[in-house]
Design a protein that fits this description.
This protein is an alpha+beta fold and about 475 residues long. It is about 25% helix and about 30% strand. The protein has a 6-stranded antiparallel beta sheet, with no helix packed on it. A 5-stranded antiparallel beta sheet has the order 13-12-11-10-14, with no helix packed on it. Strand 5 and strand 6 form a beta hairpin. The longest helix is centred in the middle third of the chain and has 19 residues.
Length: about 475
Amino acid sequence: MFNANYKTLILSFNEFYDIVDKDMPQYGEFCLLELKNGDYTAGEWNPDDYRSKKSTSGKFIRGTADTIGSEEVERWHSLERYDLSECLEDEEMGLINLGPEKEGCRSVKFEGFKSFADRKNPKEEQYCLLIMKDGTLAAGRWNKWRGQAGGAFIYAPALGSHSSDEVWAWKPLSTDESFAMELERENEKKREKKLNKNPSADPELFKYGTDINVYYEKALEKLREEFYWATLTMMKKQTPVWQIAPLHGKYVFGQISKSYYDDSDIVTPWTEGATADEFVDFLCRYTHDTVKNSNPEEKFKFGTDIDVYLEKAFNNVKKDYHWLDKKILKKGWQYDIRKVDGDLEFVRKYGNEIKYSVYDVESAERFIETVEYDYQSAALQANETVASYAPEFGHISLHGWNLEQYVFYKLKSGDYKVSVTAGDRVTGGSRDFFITPYCFEAKTYEEFLDRYLKIVPEYSFGLGKEELLPDNDLKKFLGY
């Protein structure tokens, strides 16, 4: 990389422009900013009136939902007009002037740069001045990548960022609100950790000790008075499960989730009572319906041979998906009935996966229905399309999503399906529907639509009888 020593390097910014002089950056230019309170940050200029170079009304964008209003800025200095590569090749380089030094000019020096090469990271949410590996200057707010080394400096909307791999050296700029909040959060975590080193236990709340299983077992005894089949495994299907954890220096009954930002534990305490017996009663209520719906006599009413259930599902699907055969299903979901933590469970895995996962359903009929859905999907994927027709439609909004595509397909078997795609600015999804033979038993096209729209209803998928009935090309495509 460069030969200069970043630890002793000084960057002197000399060519500042005062906002009061109405000499503004170019639209989209990324700038170092001196704020009216003396702090330093950076951002991309976004004027309210992009046609006027003299307009001072606007904002400097620092990242997603992260801006500085121009009214907070005293002066600016471009970060985009410099390439420091040649200077940084000189190992003796100690000071780099950015802009000419003039008498009476505003100059600000930054030193004390750090590098990822020394295995040093900025603090989370810290906004930094960057010297990139290509010799250019930039800035951004540090966000560590979750679950892996490295991170990125966010500098633009939609999480536009500079990867840590692209940065040669970095220097923290002034503390701002986002960073201050992150510092307070980190300090709170430290205070909480210190408090929780030796947590106390309320004798009324924890009179049966601090093993959560003791409380579950006491609740289990009560549940078995109503449901003889109840087990701890069934109770703990009701998630999230309850645990005993320290919070603010005291043990609590709580549910624990992970923080999106750093995977730290978030404890949500139980607040519906003040005694151990009240918590046991609460556990009975909390798990009641889950245990009720786990009756093995209902769940495995056709026995414990998985083939019996799969055969019922196959025969039900075969009635409409007449081309389905069992060879098609070999690459899809695989099912079994196995003991998991002492209880029989329906389990499944996909294709060549090694491990089965529990497929929790309350009844044999519900399990068969879900297998039918998997078989239907596999059957459609195996049936090639030979022709298609896409009805024309204007803008259609579906509960906040926009209809993007609506296509009828004729399948190799002579059957039909329809594929619907909808989305918003950031996400979307598609779904295929098989048009059952029952629809085509209709004598007229209008009667066909009445049956078809029960499968793909207008209120859910955008097109109804008013749009489809006059479409003679679709009518012909469907064989009417």
